[in-house]
Design a protein that fits this description.
Elements: H1 2-14, E1 39-52, E2 74-85, E3 90-100, E4 114-130, E5 135-153, E6 159-179, E7 184-195, E8 198-200, E9 210-212, E10 215-228, E11 248-261, E12 279-295, E13 298-309, E14 331-348, E15 353-356, E16 365-368, E17 371-379, H2 401-404, E18 419-427, E19 431-441, E20 449-466, E21 469-484, H3 487-496, H4 502-509, E22 511-527, E23 530-539, E24 553-562, E25 572-581, H5 584-591, E26 609-619, E27 624-634, E28 645-655
Antiparallel strand pairs: 1-2, 1-10, 2-3, 3-4, 4-5, 5-6, 6-7, 7-10, 8-9, 11-12, 11-28, 12-13, 13-14, 14-17, 15-16, 17-18, 18-19, 19-20, 20-21, 21-22, 22-23, 23-24, 24-25, 25-26, 26-27, 27-28
Length: about 650
């Protein structure tokens, strides 16, 4: 929350331009037009909250990052509304919003027969405020509703049977809103939400009935974009437009990605196998990209994200997984995570400069081509390493994990794919070198990051032209140290103790061990609007994978073709393929019944996993694209006894 307040304070400060009155020429006073709050608006909010559900309800602790875990953890959501400013400066308004909670804080979880949580709160409220020009304090109140559920746990504390209920109620609160620049305003708001009591009958689980009586406290910090009285047009001329600022920006994206496949050959399976009967699943993410310039060369970025849904079979069953938007921590309701928050300091070294366009996590302006950049905070390793112009972003291009990343690079990450650490880059016109130090998960597939062990990577990037066609070559070397088991040691212990489950032996064998490897990554424009990409990666394959996926060596490549050749210059066709493999020790471990991060069929007839992917991205307008994608995967999870599988996908992506 302190970081959120810091952003708000910095943005507010940037909107004032104090001038020394002694420097102004004497002239007749001019009438100043007061800011008019009338019109429609839409926006988003983040914040912190807490809730109680009544006695004996065992609230589920949810993540709050730098703040104490609570029954809501960090919160985030959307709002839309309408204001009407009267002649006496009273502002009457109506607003609807939805607020979602954070994922489970695993270390804070205590054993109980069941746990209670709240998934979201929605409200429709009236607002009454008073306009002091660009500042408007207000009170608010109205109708509220929400959804809770109870997780009934097994003897080991694992949630088995979620049971849900809807609640109606009321809300009241107060806040203050401030016009920033352009059509943007910022707000801070407190809300109290009281929801009706609902009885849960848990008798079928051998538990007593439980009354859930939610009382919710929400502290929100939000941004609104104002459209005036005509949201389908430019803001009305009667509403003054404030000067734009280049010292902060806001961008957003939303991506809906459904995937499905039909029945496949499946003579045997485990919970980590793709179901033989076929399946349809979908993911949906919405991300805000906020940036603010703190001082010369200093910038801060914050990216709250709501994610809902999961990949096929809960993002299990393929090493080269088919949906790059699928997170290992999928959820049926949207969950908020502050995916990125980092400081970036650029030290210009003089000489030639280049323009920097306005974009997500990029403030507009100029910078020295020769520069040193330091980044500290939370981010994805792929934000700064292993980039490629033709295969990098599953929201825009290839969807398969083995296509948009060097798949044998087990980059440090929590369940949704992010870490904390530092990056240093030295950039010249024709080359760059960058290095990073990161936290790694406390154990394979853990959502808890730690510096007790760590991960490092060094990457060299060379820029060139071949027959006047630009290209880049990136070569990286990485080493991680984490709490993992050694495949050969586990197999030896399993052979000596045949009565023990091999996956139980894995837990006992885990200790601090290393993994190292390299990747090579080429992007090359062949002719105008046609590009080639090739990636090759390898790791030693002796110890468990920590973060990414069960791949020890991978080769991928393909073509990206823009639609200028058929009269649609903003459309894109992508065609590519990948071959993934495992070390001998890793194969033997899976064949003996071991399980990895995403795969493990209980037995294994090994053959490399082969992937073909083709997509067509149809640009609907300047901010929306619809993609059709097909993937054909033979030997899913390296098993020649299963599959092949044809996966059909759609993707609707919008960015603002």
């Amino acid at each position: 929350m302190k970081r959120i307040l810091a952003i708000g304070s910095a943005v507010a400060a940037l909107s004032w331009s104090p001038v020394n009155a002694a420097d102004l020429p004497l002239q007749a006073p001019a009438l100043r037009t007061l800011y008019d709050w009338t019109g429609f608006y839409v926006g988003g909010h983040v914040g912190y909250g807490d809730a109680s559900f009544g006695p004996g309800t065992n609230p589920l602790p949810e993540q709050a990052v730098f703040f104490p875990h609570s029954a809501t953890g960090l919160i985030g959501g959307y709002q839309l509304g309408y204001n009407r400013q009267l002649a006496n400066r009273v502002v009457l308004g109506i607003e609807a919003d939805a607020t979602f909670t954070s994922p489970l804080d695993v270390p804070a979880l205590t054993a109980a027969p069941f746990h209670t949580t709240i998934n979201y709160v929605g409200t429709i409220r009236g607002r009454v405020g008073y306009a002091f020009d660009r500042i408007m304090p207000y009170v608010t109140g109205g109708f509220a509703w929400g959804h809770t559920h109870i997780n009934v746990n097994d003897i080991d504390g694992n949630a088995l049977f979620p049971v849900g209920r809807y609640h109606a109620g009321w809300t009241t609160g107060l806040g203050v809103e401030f016009a920033l620049s352009g059509n943007w305003s910022a707000k801070a708001e407190y809300e109290y939400v009281g929801l009706s009591r609902q009885a849960y009958d848990l008798s079928e689980f051998g538990l007593p009935n439980v009354n859930v009586d939610p009382r919710v406290h929400l502290l929100k910090f939000g941004l609104n974009y104002h459209f005036g009285d005509t949201p389908w047009m430019a803001p009305a001329s009667s509403k003054p437009r404030l000067p734009e600022s280049s010292d902060w920006n806001v961008h957003a994206q939303t991506t809906f990605l459904p995937q499905g496949y039909g029945p496949i050959r499946s003579p045997y399976a485990s919970p980590l196998s793709l179901p033989g009967s076929g399946q349809l699943q979908a993911t949906w993410t919405t991300t805000a990209f906020l940036g603010v310039r703190l001082w010369e060369g200093g910038e801060f970025y914050f990216n709250p994200e709501l994610a809902q849904g999961s990949g096929l079979n809960g993002t299990l069953g393929l090493a080269g997984f088919s949906n790059g938007e699928a997170q290992k921590a999928g959820a049926p309701f949207p969950k908020l995570r502050p995916q990125r928050y980092y400081f970036k300091q650029t030290f210009g070294l003089g000489g030639e400069q280049e323009e920097v366009a306005d974009g997500p996590n990029q403030l507009p302006g100029k910078r020295d081509i020769d520069r040193i950049t330091v980044v500290v905070g939370r981010f994805a390793v792929g934000d700064f390493f292993d980039g490629n112009a033709y295969a990098k972003d599953p929201r825009l291009d290839f969807m398969n994990w083995a296509m948009w990343a060097s798949a044998a690079y087990d980059f440090p990450a929590d369940l949704p794919g992010y870490t904390r650490g530092a990056v240093v880059e030295f950039n010249r016109k024709e080359w760059a070198v960058r290095a990073g130090l990161f936290q790694v998960p406390s154990a394979p597939n853990s959502d808890v990051l730690t510096f007790k062990t760590g991960g490092t990577v060094v990457e060299f990037e060379e820029r060139h032209t071949i027959f006047d066609q630009p290209g880049k070559l990136r070569v990286g070397a990485f080493a991680n140290n984490g709490n993992t088991a050694n495949y050969r040691e586990v197999l030896a212990l399993a052979a000596a103790n045949p009565a023990l489950d091999i996956n139980d032996i894995v837990g006992a064998n885990q200790r601090g061990r290393g993994k190292y490897g390299f990747y090579v990554n080429l992007e090359q424009q062949l002719v105008n609007d046609v590009g080639l990409f090739v990636r090759a990666s390898w790791n030693d394959g002796q110890n468990q994978i920590l973060s990414f996926t069960d791949i020890d060596r991978s080769l991928s490549g393909g073509l990206s073709i823009k639609g200028s050749y058929w009269g649609r210059p903003n459309d894109t066709i992508g065609i590519g393929g990948a071959v993934n493999g495992l070390s001998a020790a890793h194969r033997d471990f899976l064949a003996a019944g071991g399980t990895g991060l995403l795969i493990g069929d209980g037995q294994l007839n090994y053959s490399p996993e082969r992937i073909f992917e083709a997509y067509y991205s149809w640009k609907l307008n300047t901010w929306t694209a619809l993609t059709f994608d097909y993937q054909f995967i033979t030997n899913p999870a390296y098993n020649a006894d299963r599959g092949p599988v044809s996966i059909f996908s759609g993707r609707l992506h919008a960015e603002f």
